[in-house]
Specification:
mainly alpha, single chain, 8 helices, globular
Length: 216
């Protein structure tokens, strides 16, 4: 009992430290973005990516951007919830449902309308809504990091592989967002910061309701 309490206190301290760090990073980045000091960097990075435009790359970018769409992510979440419930991983499913719904509400219903940042113009595909922070990056990165954590828990030898594949896949989604002129680079940075905060929330919640993850 004392050992469990010690671990929970350690988790709480870790969460608090990380939460403060992430909020500070996001707040600092947002202030700079709003001030316009990073506009030149954003434009230059988009121009750099566009130097290598090619019809084949455009098709690849559209595919990866589609794979990062909220509709696709929602299907993956639903299928994952079905699988977890089928295997009786009820607590893991609860955390997935709460975190997926939570980050969707935070990004699309609070942060994007609040900041109201306009997307780059013109985009190579028709996308509506505001751009800051990137929901593609925040939602997908948190989702796949959570999957990597669960898979790594049951297959420890493959943990690094799961995380590597997840991060590479989301980086490709991020590249496609810039290539298609849908997001600014700083949108992706902000989305990444929020994703890690969401991921830590997932793990902290999972450890608090399921003892077997306390030592992982």
């Amino acid at each position: 009992m004392k050992f469990k309490k010690h671990l929970l206190n350690k988790i709480d301290k870790t969460f608090a430290l990380f939460f403060i760090t992430v909020v500070t990073l996001f707040t600092g980045l947002t202030r700079i973005v709003i001030s316009g000091k990073l506009n030149t960097m954003d434009l230059n990075l988009i121009k750099l990516v566009h130097l290598y435009q090619h019809p084949i790359l455009t098709k690849i970018a559209k595919i990866f951007y589609f794979l990062g769409e909220s509709e696709v992510a929602a299907c993956i979440v639903i299928l994952s919830l079905g699988f977890l419930c089928w295997k009786s991983y009820w607590k893991e499913a609860q955390v997935l449902a709460i975190s997926a719904m939570g980050i969707l509400l935070v990004i699309d219903k609070i942060l994007k309308p609040w900041f109201g940042r306009i997307r780059p113009i013109p985009g190579l595909i028709d996308v509506h809504g505001k751009s800051y922070p990137s929901g593609h990056i925040s939602g997908n990165l948190m989702l796949y990091l959570y999957f990597s954590y669960l898979m790594g828990f049951y297959f420890p030898k493959w943990k690094a592989f799961f995380y590597t594949i997840s991060i590479f896949f989301v980086m490709t989604i991020g590249w496609s967002s810039i290539y298609l002129n849908i997001h600014w680079y700083t949108d992706l940075l902000a989305g990444t910061v929020i994703a890690f905060m969401g991921f830590l929330f997932c793990i902290t919640l999972l450890k608090s309701i399921n003892n077997k993850y306390l030592d992982s």
